[in-house]
Design goal:
alpha/beta, Rossmann fold, four-stranded parallel sheet, two-stranded antiparallel ribbon, 8 strands, globular, Sulfotransferase, Sulfotransferase_dom, P-loop_NTPase, EC 2.8.2.-, transferase
Length: 295
């Protein structure tokens, strides 16, 4: 790997102390000024935590399991990524403003950067958290295929960046804890990726209850089937293969790579795992948040 490749500082700046893509920062005033609607549903995750999965499930719920309706467009158009604003390429805020209600709004922002209109309108929010080990591995492969990132370097180098929060959207630890603390005060459902893998039907029932929606059993089963990893991986409207190659290069690593829990064991060395666990204990000390590192 050539050392002349663009560095972290070429791609990222700081937004409220959080590492963020420079292009996002330049346009962030549009995000801050965004006018939420009371029936907006906000989907929040730290990157690589099941964002596309929960988005597809919710779009299927909103469309009563109508699979053809959910193929009307790519997932990133059906559930716009609000803070993704790259002039002449894509604009999450504009996409949302053009949408009819009720809207599904995707975000990766830490809790302190969420636009105030979502709090004012008491919008419902669904947060999905995934264990740190698997997120680190998935993020490493995503950095390689999504061209908005600098070269991640070796796995060892990237793991250091992840542990110190020197990645887009900052520290995983602060992100999951920040949203966990807020769940006491607002209308939020906090889900875990590992629970979704273990018993997806139970988690879909939680979503339906949270949204005050009632769907027949056969519709729930249909949603389960069409939101499974195997079905989504084959679905061009869900698997990001419609993205241009200069944005995402699936030949480097597919966007939908494995979709399992516990894959970190194939990546971490024993030494890396021990160092990671020691650091994890320090950073998560005092939090009531508990994760499964495998199922």
């Amino acid at each position: 790997m050539s050392s002349s490749k663009p560095s972290f500082s070429d791609y990222f700046g700081k937004l409220g102390g959080i590492p963020m893509y420079k292009k996002f920062i330049e346009q962030f005033h549009n995000v801050e000024e965004f006018e939420a609607r009371p029936d907006d549903l906000v989907i929040v995750t730290y990157p690589k935590s099941g964002t596309t999965w929960i988005s597809e499930i919710l779009d299927l719920i909103y469309n009563h399991g109508d699979v053809e309706k959910c193929k009307r467009d790519a997932i990133y158009k059906r559930v716009p990524f609000m803070e993704l604003i790259i002039p002449r390429l894509t604009n999450g805020v504009e996409d949302l403003n053009d949408m009819q209600s009720p809207r599904l709004v995707k975000k990766h922002l830490p809790v302190q950067l969420l636009p105030s209109s979502f709090w004012k309108n008491n919008c419902k929010m669904v947060y999905v958290a995934r264990n740190a080990n698997d997120v680190a591995v998935s993020y490493y492969y995503f950095y390689q295929m999504a061209k908005m990132h600098p070269d991640p370097g070796t796995w060892e180098e990237f793991l250091d960046k992840f542990m110190t929060g020197k990645v887009a959207f900052g520290s995983w630890y602060d992100h999951v804890k920040g949203w966990w603390e807020k769940k006491k005060d607002y209308c939020k459902l906090y889900l875990f990726y590992e629970d979704m893998k273990q018993d997806p039907k139970c988690e879909i029932q939680k979503l339906l209850k949270f949204l005050d929606k009632d769907l027949p059993e056969e519709t729930v089963d249909k949603i389960l089937y069409h939101s499974s990893f195997d079905m989504m991986k084959q679905n061009p409207s869900a698997n990001y293969t419609t993205m241009p190659k200069f944005c995402m290069d699936h030949s480097v690593s597919p966007f939908m790579r494995k979709g399992v829990s516990g894959d970190w064991k194939n990546q971490f060395t024993v030494v890396q795992y021990e160092r990671f666990e020691e650091d994890y204990e320090k950073k998560m000390k005092g939090s009531t948040l508990q994760f499964h590192s495998e199922i």
